[in-house]
């Protein structure tokens, strides 16, 4: 399937990188990566531990500064932007280690995200009851990720898997165009995995998703296209079925067990 | 860094109602002071510090930013108001305005420098800035160095309120305090306040949600600094002097103490804390040399036994947010 | 020009006190996460213990150099055991407040019994007198202070950064529960570490007794500057505070030469500049 | 800080004897009561897996055994010694090692120091070469700061460092989380080998597929209680149950 | 007539200056009350004391409260110039009384003089005048100043420099050091390099003792330069020890071993002090001031509770007490008495504890203080 991108129109790709490189004191965590993410697709980024997946995410969302290379988002060069501004353009991430506002309730967690978009977040002279108008939408989002009963629970008291779900709900609240999910299923129970997988599938109709995941069944079921990274470089790209046949991928990532 | 506040208590609509009730009770009690025989100057002074502590609390308790240089706003506003009143002969309301404006300007400058720093480094850069300012005030002629500006005229506010009458002064100060307090209360419970709290909780996450967190922290810093300045301007009328004490680092430390003793991140805590500390300074003064020992013991006991502060402990006991 | 050399040398001498004190503070902060406001009071106690040893027990300076840090260190460990240990896991602020309270109590008690103007402590005979260096008259005692504190600083640095014990300490700072679950008696280790930091303060106190008066408030005036040193060096960084300590002494020396009024302030100017350029101090790790 | 009063270790090769006995274990986080009476046994040389939904109390069980939960009651016997009151450093020195869920890599230590951190409690730990064979990534990154490692590398480090100590009873909390399939396979092999060498392993896993390749027995935890348990040989007969309990 | 009196001792109880005022001042006041014998004549005299922590704002708050709530009639001690000026304002506004025995600034009786205030013991003008002149006369004709960087230090330096120049000496330079420094080596090196014959210490308390001590260490005195402590108290000498302090010249208006009267008082005082210290001139001033105040009250037959009126009365009566001898209070509020130039004894000359000074000169009362002709005090009619 490589090369398909070249035939298509440039704006089919919502995100493109050229020669993206990140060096930590002589160690290349990401090296010369050219990534093209098609609008509306679920694109998986897989690879062995330490391959540079999270680093890639950090570069894309500007939490790290690239050593070299260029990032285009919706055709615009965002290489030099600040992280918050990238988020405002609709490119939003979740974290590998779960990131919630621990002492806010689930509802409030989601509301914080809703509030950003709808302004009024600098209004220090107004009562916060103006935020109540977000409650319905927030409940809806919590419901989507199966957290209805946790609406009034502080995030810190929620089980791990639920925190991941909450994080996704919060991210969705921003109504992003593209979501970067870093191991969204890590540490979840089976039921939750299925729920979240279904959720991702559902929302992918509206959003573009780039995700890192080690759970192969999830990757297999969800992703339209997969890029395999090793040692900071792209090793292969293609559909799951193709990649499982690729000896290099097997050796580097999947292991012998995967036929 | 663990959070300092008791976060098992969250603002729910019921909590807001509780807080309003307590506020009204507090306002009534304070309004009754002149009829009780309690010495009004003591209360006025405590009110000024209470406002300062509340402003400080806005930054630490809700923004997670521990400023170790809040005295600089108090002192700057104090000096500027004092100078305006005494040398330029401005009426009280304009004197206050001058002081508050100075604190506002100062908080913009210092906020711009310090806000990008995290945790303990933020504290330290605010401390360093306030020490620089201390040095400037020590050297600048208009502050009269160690002697301070003394004998400041109180004047007539709006041309009618004679501030040299203790009762009139008392109500003016009380009104100022209540206004400042309500503003802070509102800020905490505003959309802005919500964002601030979430930044305190997890700044990285807030950034990833698209918040330019520096701007929010900056606004919180400026609001806090300006309100602290307002406290400083009011204090000029009460103390009728402006001195280096108000810009010294130990004053910044005292504010931290007041807030902690009362209860960090509680709305009424700083007020109670300010009253406790000021009362301690006043009434322990007659214990002679043992003052510092007694004061020290109180801090030790506070930290070891009721760390949430007076109000924090009460709130925790009743499982209410106060 | 000669005067300038002299100022630099004198600066270095003061720097050794900053270095020793901030070193102890950095050890305590780095390992226990406590901002030890009582450091100044403990430094003062070191000097007083030396004074008592001499005047009540007839024990000379050299023994005091060994005994005072041990005695004050034990006092510190008692403090840690009875009070500070209850604060593990809480915000810095509580430790700061508690130690501030302790400092007030200790200073208050000493002031009650010994007044505030201070007691004399003589320079030991072996170190009396001075050398003419050409550009200045260097009291031998001051030269001794520089050399001795340099040695102590480097030894401490080695202990903490280069030994397994140091690794335990650093790890325990971050996650004491887990380190304990690896089989290390963390509470005891922490107590000993606090004792070490406090002992360093007391050592500085003994060193300074012959130079400064033995005064109850001798530490109170110093503590805030020493804090600044620790911050500039990068909170908790051992080497950072040693280098900054000595460097600050020299810079102060220069300031005293060119603009003496600002000599108490220059450290804060430095702090603002350093924090603006390097947000976590010269060698610090993220807060 | 050597603590000499250490209980005599079980002979590493002796399998079969009951090594850990948990009875009526209850535990609290502050006010909230999490474990409501956990009962189970582990025999020497076994791999036992705790399964259960998110929040069932698996991690809490391990932590309670390790002595790092503030309030706990009941009985935990290790080699017939009661350890419910013991402090965690004593427990560790009796030969129990713990690899926490959140990994617990130290930011202020480099990878080498992290690896060397846990003190050796007795002879017989894996030598460094073997550890590097298992986790080649670590060898490469030895001088990086601990928390600069990628998520998976941190997980490797967390496992690696307790293999060194010679503790013969390992508690691993979701060791495969965030690891690439190749590495998971390797860990599977490692566990098998450790078992052969006489280690006893108490495992908490969400990844049932992985657990089924290594475990001898399973216990199911729900709402702070062990509600069921069976051996690997009875697995197929119990698939239904597993489905209702865990949705596998 | 009302015969109740309340005395407030407002002092530094915990800080830098607590040895020379502090608890000793309170004791001195207590002794004055006991010695007055007024209780037997039906007077009821109360005494309270407080710590102003050297902070003008704390002091004014306490002062207001004392006047408004505690009904304090008279403030004693109030050392520290900044505090004194602030309290001076309050006392004037509320028509109370201040007898200041500790603050140095001569402004209290000059630009800031008040009908409610008496400055009892010493001031910067007098120190400069007496010590400065004496040293120049003794051949110390070139000076270098070490000055505490605040109003008090600056005033002391300015006044001393003027005296030195008037007497034909030269000022070669000066260096300002921050208040409460612990290290003076750099400043001393500069003083050394200046080659001035006299190094004038325009500072007080710990600053002075530390500079003296370190001067010895750096061989300043051994190198032939002489130190002049412009404001030194006996407690400072005590803490320095005679070894270091010997040979210093300075001015005080009271010394315990001056005559029978001072010795008798000081012995009684010292016995009641916790650390057996002899009284400083500040503490002695508290006693002396109160003695005179009580005389005025008796003369008025009761307490008018009117500060200006009582001060008026005090000014009209000559003063006489065993500690400061005979004297008077000028219209500007300046208490007039002789000043004594002392030199610190060598250890070999000292006969016992607290035997520290030998008298080397006396400035007569009429020459010791700023002449009224130079005064800008509005109370002085010209
Ligand atoms: N700040 C940093 N400094 C030095 N090295 C780093 C830093 N961040 C990451 N690395 C290194 O870069 C490599 C890539 O890390 P990254 O976190 O991107 O891996 P990953 O693909 O996300 O792996 P995993 O699946 O385990 O999460 C790793 O070897 C890691 O040690
Ligand atoms: N620090 C804590 N304070 C309060 N409650 C907690 C804390 N940690 C965990 N809990 C609660 O204890 C319960 C059991 O948690 P535990 O971590 O043992 O679950 P688990 O079975 O390990 O789940 P997972 O598979 O998600 O790791 C959960 O309901 C959780 O919310
Ligand atoms: C020594 C002190 C009692 C005088 C003080 N330095 C003052 O400012 O007046
Ligand atoms: Mg990763
Ligand atoms: Mg768990």
From TrEMBL, chain A:
<feature type="domain" description="ABC transporter">
    <location>
        <begin position="15"/>
        <end position="256"/>
    </location>
</feature>
<dbReference type="GO" id="GO:0005886">
    <property type="term" value="C:plasma membrane"/>
</dbReference>
<keyword id="KW-0547">Nucleotide-binding</keyword>
<dbReference type="GO" id="GO:0016887">
    <property type="term" value="F:ATP hydrolysis activity"/>
</dbReference>
<dbReference type="InterPro" id="IPR027417">
    <property type="entry name" value="P-loop_NTPase"/>
</dbReference>
<comment type="function">
    <text>Involved in beta-(1--&gt;2)glucan export. Transmembrane domains (TMD) form a pore in the inner membrane and the ATP-binding domain (NBD) is responsible for energy generation.</text>
</comment>
<keyword id="KW-0813">Transport</keyword>
<dbReference type="Pfam" id="PF12399">
    <property type="entry name" value="BCA_ABC_TP_C"/>
</dbReference>
<protein>
    <submittedName>
        <fullName>Amino acid/amide ABC transporter ATP-binding protein 1 (HAAT family)</fullName>
    </submittedName>
</protein>
<dbReference type="Pfam" id="PF00005">
    <property type="entry name" value="ABC_tran"/>
</dbReference>
<dbReference type="GO" id="GO:0005524">
    <property type="term" value="F:ATP binding"/>
</dbReference>
<dbReference type="InterPro" id="IPR051120">
    <property type="entry name" value="ABC_AA/LPS_Transport"/>
</dbReference>
UniProtKB/TrEMBL annotation, chain B:
<feature type="transmembrane region" description="Helical">
    <location>
        <begin position="218"/>
        <end position="237"/>
    </location>
</feature>
<protein>
    <submittedName>
        <fullName>Amino acid/amide ABC transporter membrane protein 2 (HAAT family)</fullName>
    </submittedName>
</protein>
<feature type="transmembrane region" description="Helical">
    <location>
        <begin position="257"/>
        <end position="280"/>
    </location>
</feature>
<feature type="transmembrane region" description="Helical">
    <location>
        <begin position="120"/>
        <end position="137"/>
    </location>
</feature>
<feature type="transmembrane region" description="Helical">
    <location>
        <begin position="49"/>
        <end position="74"/>
    </location>
</feature>
<feature type="transmembrane region" description="Helical">
    <location>
        <begin position="20"/>
        <end position="42"/>
    </location>
</feature>
<feature type="transmembrane region" description="Helical">
    <location>
        <begin position="168"/>
        <end position="188"/>
    </location>
</feature>
<feature type="transmembrane region" description="Helical">
    <location>
        <begin position="287"/>
        <end position="306"/>
    </location>
</feature>
<keyword id="KW-1003">Cell membrane</keyword>
<dbReference type="InterPro" id="IPR001851">
    <property type="entry name" value="ABC_transp_permease"/>
</dbReference>
<feature type="transmembrane region" description="Helical">
    <location>
        <begin position="94"/>
        <end position="113"/>
    </location>
</feature>
<keyword id="KW-1133">Transmembrane helix</keyword>
From TrEMBL, chain C:
<feature type="transmembrane region" description="Helical">
    <location>
        <begin position="258"/>
        <end position="277"/>
    </location>
</feature>
<feature type="transmembrane region" description="Helical">
    <location>
        <begin position="34"/>
        <end position="54"/>
    </location>
</feature>
<dbReference type="GO" id="GO:0005886">
    <property type="term" value="C:plasma membrane"/>
</dbReference>
<dbReference type="GO" id="GO:0006865">
    <property type="term" value="P:amino acid transport"/>
</dbReference>
<keyword id="KW-1003">Cell membrane</keyword>
<feature type="transmembrane region" description="Helical">
    <location>
        <begin position="91"/>
        <end position="110"/>
    </location>
</feature>
<protein>
    <submittedName>
        <fullName>Amino acid/amide ABC transporter membrane protein 1 (HAAT family)</fullName>
    </submittedName>
</protein>
<feature type="transmembrane region" description="Helical">
    <location>
        <begin position="141"/>
        <end position="160"/>
    </location>
</feature>
<dbReference type="GO" id="GO:0022857">
    <property type="term" value="F:transmembrane transporter activity"/>
</dbReference>
<feature type="transmembrane region" description="Helical">
    <location>
        <begin position="6"/>
        <end position="27"/>
    </location>
</feature>
<comment type="similarity">
    <text>Belongs to the binding-protein-dependent transport system permease family. LivHM subfamily.</text>
</comment>
<keyword id="KW-0813">Transport</keyword>
TrEMBL record, chain D:
<comment type="function">
    <text>Involved in beta-(1--&gt;2)glucan export. Transmembrane domains (TMD) form a pore in the inner membrane and the ATP-binding domain (NBD) is responsible for energy generation.</text>
</comment>
<comment type="similarity">
    <text>Belongs to the ABC transporter superfamily.</text>
</comment>
<dbReference type="GO" id="GO:0015658">
    <property type="term" value="F:branched-chain amino acid transmembrane transporter activity"/>
</dbReference>
<protein>
    <submittedName>
        <fullName>Amino acid/amide ABC transporter ATP-binding protein 2 (HAAT family)</fullName>
    </submittedName>
</protein>
<dbReference type="InterPro" id="IPR052156">
    <property type="entry name" value="BCAA_Transport_ATP-bd_LivF"/>
</dbReference>
<dbReference type="InterPro" id="IPR003593">
    <property type="entry name" value="AAA+_ATPase"/>
</dbReference>
<keyword id="KW-0029">Amino-acid transport</keyword>
<dbReference type="InterPro" id="IPR027417">
    <property type="entry name" value="P-loop_NTPase"/>
</dbReference>
<dbReference type="GO" id="GO:0015807">
    <property type="term" value="P:L-amino acid transport"/>
</dbReference>
<keyword id="KW-0547">Nucleotide-binding</keyword>
<dbReference type="InterPro" id="IPR003439">
    <property type="entry name" value="ABC_transporter-like_ATP-bd"/>
</dbReference>
<dbReference type="GO" id="GO:0016887">
    <property type="term" value="F:ATP hydrolysis activity"/>
</dbReference>
